[in-house]
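Retro notes (design track)

What went well: tokenization of the new backbones is finally stable.
What didn't: we kept losing track of which sequence belonged to which structure.
Fix going forward: every design gets posted as structure first, then sequence, in one message. First example under the new rule, 277 residues:
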């Protein structure tokens, strides 16, 4: 059964009416595989994209391609020292044109151009060599004593607005949970993520406490083991789980899968509570 999640439509702008009457995924996929051939496939946050390809193939009952996925986000983290490694920020830092963020063609072109620019900057001519160079940088936090704590996207934390948790489906997997985010999400901003989970009946929280029931990890992380991610929040969750606390860990793919189950969106003008930190 085909379903267009409202949140996803808000992000990429593709609605059911736009694809009505067009060939199904399985019909056009052989041509995509032919064009790619044996070339490596580059995507920004490749774990998400490879998962989407895998699920689309499974849904269509066709074989998954054995593509060699490379991640421009992960490579950028090795070669650049930025406050944010979201696609627009990396592109801007390298002078790469990004015509329309979340447009599939524009995002793909920008991811490819980012890798080419980084290779030229490093003086290498292969992806393997580019991936070996540089240094993986941990999640950046604002320095103390500045008077303003900033998100990695460059906006002041004080601009984040805590949404009011209203309603929601008690059967939804996020309903009633206290959710903390760490790392940057590729598909949405932190504010959008807060709004989306609040619409499901979950309570967003800034920091991990004993009340926390779910940690969502971004920055291209995959898996459910918090100790594999190097932030204070992830480390705190690992400590709580070791003490017997039940804290679910979810990567971005898992979060988006949960949000797809929720058919409601945040109503325009919904009451919010300002949070100042």
């Amino acid at each position: 059964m085909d379903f267009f999640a409202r949140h996803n439509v808000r992000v990429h702008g593709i609605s059911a009416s736009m694809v009505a009457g067009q060939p199904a995924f399985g019909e056009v996929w052989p041509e995509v595989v032919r064009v790619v051939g044996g070339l490596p496939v580059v995507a920004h946050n490749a774990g998400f994209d490879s998962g989407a390809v895998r699920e689309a193939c499974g849904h269509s009952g066709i074989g998954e391609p054995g593509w060699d996925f490379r991640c421009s986000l992960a490579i950028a983290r090795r070669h650049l020292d930025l406050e944010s490694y979201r696609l627009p920020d990396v592109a801007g830092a390298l002078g790469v044109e990004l015509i329309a963020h979340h447009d599939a063609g524009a995002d793909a072109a920008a991811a490819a151009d980012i890798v080419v620019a980084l290779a030229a900057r490093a003086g290498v001519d292969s992806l393997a060599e580019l991936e070996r160079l540089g240094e993986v940088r941990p999640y950046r936090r604002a320095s103390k004593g500045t008077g303003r704590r900033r998100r990695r996207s460059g906006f002041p934390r004080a601009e984040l607005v805590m949404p009011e948790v209203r309603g929601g489906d008690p059967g939804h997997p996020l309903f009633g949970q206290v959710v903390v985010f760490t790392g940057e999400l590729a598909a949405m901003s932190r504010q959008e993520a807060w709004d989306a989970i609040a619409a499901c009946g979950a309570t967003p929280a800034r920091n991990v406490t004993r009340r926390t029931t779910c940690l969502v990890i971004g920055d291209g992380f995959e898996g459910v083991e918090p100790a594999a991610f190097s932030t204070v929040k992830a480390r705190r969750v690992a400590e709580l789980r070791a003490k017997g606390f039940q804290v679910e860990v979810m990567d971005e793919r898992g979060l988006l899968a949960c949000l797809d189950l929720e058919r409601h969106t945040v109503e325009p003008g919904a009451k919010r509570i300002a949070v100042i930190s």
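Added context from the reviewer: Strands lie at 41-43, 69-71, 161-163, 178-182, 203-205, 214-217, 248-251, 272-274.
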